[in-house]
Amino acid sequence: MSVNSLLAFLDNPGIILTLGAFLTVLAPVALRRPIMLGVVAFSAFRLWGMEIGDSLAFTLFDLEIMPVQYDVLSRLFLVVFHIAAGLNVIYSWMVKDRSECFAALAYPAAAMGGVLAGDWITLFIWWELAALTSVFLVWAPQTRESYLSGLRYMSIQIASGVILLGGIVLVFREQDSLAIGTLSLRDGGGNFNIAALMLFIALGIKSAFPMLHNWVQDAYPKATIGGTIILSVFTTKLAVYMFARVFVGTPELIWIGAIMTIFPIFFALIENDLRKVLTYSINNQVGFMIVGIGFGTAASVNGAVGYAFGNIIFESLLFMSVGAAMYRTGTSKATELGGLYRTMPITLFFCLIGALSISAFPGFAGFVTKGLILDGAAEAHNLIIWLILLFASAGVLEHAGIKIPYFTFFAHDSGKRPKEAPLPMLIAMGIAAFLSVVIGLYPQPLFALLPHQAHIVDYNPFTAYHFVEQLQLLLFAVLAFALLIKFKLYPPEVPSTNLDVDWFYRIPGRAVLFAIIGFVVAAWRVVWGGLQKLVGSIVERTHRTHGPEGALARSWPVGFMALWTAVVLGAALIVLFLNQ
Amino acid sequence: MDFFAQLPALPVVVPFVAAPMALLMPPGRIPWLWAVLVSWVSFGLSLLLLEQVWVNGPVTYAMGGWAAPLGIIYYIDLANALVLSLVTGIAAVVFPYAYNSVRDEINHGQTPGFYTALLLCLAGLIGVTMTGDAFNVFVFLEVSSLATYTLVAMGAGRDRRALTAAFNYLVMGTIGATFFVIGIGLLYQATGTLNMLDLHERLAGQDNRLVKAAFAFIITGLGLKLAMLPLHLWLPPAYTYAPSAITAFLAATATKVAVYIMLRFLFTVFGFDFPFLKVALDFFLVLGIAGMFIASLAAVFQDDVKMLLAYSSVAQIGYMLLGISLGTVDGVAASLIHVVNHAFIKAALFMAVGIVVLRLGSHQLRAFQGLATRMPWTSWGIVVAGLSLVGVPATVGFVSKFALLSAVFAKGGTMEIIAGFLILASSLLAVIYMMRVIKVMLQPVPTDGPFAGPVAAPPLTMRLMLWIMVGVNIYFGLQAQPVIAIAQKAAATLLGVDSGEAF
Question: Is the full-model pTM beyond 0.90?
Answer without folding.
Answer: no
